[in-house]
Amino acid sequence: MKSTLCIFFAVIFVALCFVGCSNIPKEPATTDTMKISYVDPYGETAAPPVNVDNSGETTFPVKYIETVNDVEVVLSSYYVYGNSVAAITDVKITDDGFSNSASGYADVRVDAIGSRKDGVKIGYTAYDKDGNIVRNSYLLAKLDGIKKGETCEDRRFDFPREAVKIVFYDYVDKD
After folding, report:
1. Cα–Cα dist 116/69, whole Å
2. CA 97 → CA 37, 65, 67, 173, distances in Å?
3. What is the pTM of this model?
4. What pLDDT shows up at residue 104?
5. What 3-state class would DSSP assign to 118?
6. Residue 75, class by beta-carbon neighbours within 10 Å (0-12 exposed, 13-18 middle, 19+ buried)?
């Protein structure tokens, strides 16, 4: 009886130690919204001049006009992935015009490293002006050589140019 009671208390003690070592903050994450503008080098096409004689076989090259796109970015105060905790501290958006998508770069501060030491995934969903999902993916902050409190800079993510809103969230692996 005495040994059974000791084993029971030992199991309870070990379980409480694991619960007490959780990296996840006790307070719920808060959200914040920011607007980011970027230049789309192929935003619009310019029509050929109306006073040009188009009766011959000469074709006019397509001319593109740069436009400025605005994207609303919704961030949480922290993200949890595999008992690791991270926060996005900065987001930059650019468009080089060479790919089919615009590029975003996020700085990710690692607040706690959990069981998955290879990286932290943060999910994101991009929406167009009608509220339709145009991209649902994740960005990866690799943890090679990163310690608690350090920042993984310029973690790339991409989204279609027609996106007007990007929402980041806790990523969950699909099994």
Report:
1. 36
2. 15, 12, 12, 31
3. 0.76
4. 94
5. coil
6. buried
User: Of the ranges 36-40, 74-78, 111-115, which is most confident?
Assistant: 74-78
Q: Using the 8-state DSSP alphabet, how is residue 117 labeled?
A: T
Q: Highest mean pLDDT range out of 1-5, 19-23, 107-111?
A: 107-111
Q: Give the C-alpha distances (Å, rounded to integers) separating 113 from 8, 19, 31, 91, 161.
A: 30, 16, 22, 22, 34
Token output for 118: 């290879």
Both tokens of 144, joined, read 């090679």
pLDDT at residue 16 greater than cutoff 50: no
Confidence at 43, pLDDT banded by 50, 70, 90: low
Q: At which residue do the structure tokens 């961030």 appear?
A: 75
**Backbone φ and ψ of 98, nearest 5°:** -95, -25
Question: Six-digit token pair at 133?
Answer: 């999902």
Contacts of residue 86, defined as CB under 8 A and 6 or more positions apart, other chains included, come to 78, 79, 108, 109, 110, 111, 120, 122, 141
Token look-up 């790339």 returns 156
Q: Determine the pLDDT at residue 12.
A: 54
